[in-house]
Specification:
By secondary structure, the chain is of the alpha/beta class. The protein is built from four helices and four strands. Strands 1, 2, 3 and 4 form a four-stranded mixed sheet that branches.
Length: about 100
Amino acid sequence: MSRFAWKFCGVVAVLAIGAMVACRTTESPDAQVDDMKITAQVKEKLASDLGVATVTNISVNSTNGVVTLSGQVKTAERKSRAGDVAGAVANVVRVINVLQVAPQP
């Protein structure tokens, strides 16, 4: 097989794997769009309530309305506040708050 053919096959394989990761077969397309909206709204509220610097350390994931917060925050109060903020967003069913409180230097 030529070098071009190998590269082409590699690109196709990477795209196929990417499509499988991006496609959640347990959710309808409408539910996936709703989850993307929820994620965006949670990030927006976190940025406005806790500050942009805090949000850069928080990962937000939403599946079927269940929001998972992960990453690091500086205090237990911020962890609790982040969970409260996420839970106040429309269409959030439940919040799983696995944020870690980073040790202070």
